[in-house]
Amino acid sequence: MRNLLSAVFIASATLAGCESAPSPSAIRPVSSAKAPVAQEPSRVEVGEMGFQPSHVAIGANRQVVFRRTAQNTCATAIAFPSLGIQKSLPLNTDVVVDLPSTVRGEIGFQCGMGMYRGAAIALERTQ
């Protein structure tokens, strides 16, 4: 039994080491430049359980699109308290929130009653 286990171990180790290395043309150098910031607005679904996703990255356009998909939720409005922004969320309708271009870092948002919370993370712009 011991010999069988040893043989299985040696065979699996040998097979694992047989994978071919990627060709030089398939290897891409790692760039130190920042990745481009997405231009598409970030999307958040508002349902019975709150915001999905609850945290989103926002790009250079600084837009978040909220869409309420459930009738039975207290999240019938969206608020960004620190920015003084509040909008109603009609059922099955995209609501675009334009955030100021000066915002950086994490900006909290919540439903009108403050029971569901999330955040938009403003990414740095690239040159």
The fraction of residues in strands falls at 35-45%
Supply the CATH class of one domain. Mainly Beta
Number of contiguous helices: 1
Strand ordering within the main sheet: 3-9-8-5-6
State the shape: globular
Radius of gyration: 24 Å
- Assign the CATH topology of one domain: Immunoglobulin-like
The total of beta strands comes to 9
Terminal CA distance reads 64 Å
What is the correct CATH architecture of one domain? Answer: Sandwich
The stretches of 5 or more residues where confidence is low (pLDDT under 50) are: 1-37
SSE pattern = HEEEEEEEEE
Describe the largest sheet: 5 strands, mixed
Q: CATH superfamily assignment of one domain?
A: Cupredoxins -  blue copper proteins
Structural class: mainly beta
Please state the average pLDDT score: 76
Q: What share of the residues lie within helices?
A: 10-25%
Descriptive account of the structure:
- It is a single chain.
- The protein is mainly beta and 127 residues long.
- It has a domain at 42-122: Cupredoxins -  blue copper proteins (Immunoglobulin-like).
- Helices cover 12% and strands 35% of the residues.
- It contains one helix and nine strands; from the N terminus they run H-E-E-E-E-E-E-E-E-E.
- The protein has one helix spanning 2-16; strands spanning 42-47, 50-52, 55-58, 63-68, 77-80, 85-88, 94-98, 105-111, 117-122.
- Strands 3-9-8-5-6 form a five-stranded mixed beta sheet, with no helix packed on it. A four-stranded mixed beta sheet has the order 2-1-4-7, with no helix packed on it.
- A hairpin with a 5-residue loop joins strand 8 and strand 9 (117-122).
- It is globular.
